[in-house]
Specification:
- The N terminus is likely disordered.
- The longest helix has 24 residues.
- The protein is an alpha/beta fold.
- The radius of gyration is 17 Å and the shape is globular.
- The chain contains two helices and seven strands.
- Helix content is 22%, strand content 30%.
- Strands 1-5-2-4-3-6 form a six-stranded mixed beta barrel.
- The N and C termini lie far apart (49 Å).
- A hairpin with a 5-residue loop joins β3 and β4.
Length: 135
Amino acid sequence: MKTVRRLTAATAAIAAFALLGSAQANAAPGCGHASWYALTSKTASGERMNAAKLTAAHRSLPFGTKVLVTNKRNGKSVIVRINDRGPFIRGRVIDVSKAAAQNIGMVSSGTAQVCYQIVADTQKVAGKGIKGVDG
């Protein structure tokens, strides 16, 4: 009887995790303040941070998620891959690598108001000023 309860609890936990993961993967787009960073340490995903790649940090999106980030001031966009956790400064919604920041024109200011949305297939994203993800 105890074995059946444990299996049922384990199955329920796995199902809940799967639903939560898919809910995050289909998360609604967001807008807010972004910053850029260029560390040389390991990211939360375990890979070494490379400021020359189009990557970003987000608090909850799964690692590997491709996200279209658009600078609201100039309309420039870039597709980044989530490979780290953060930002850890209140009011910020995403941290992008230095390369991504250069693509959307926010290096000199350090921060920018952006909107972001998850993209399912980076090959199908087209538009003026959009840079593809590398990394």
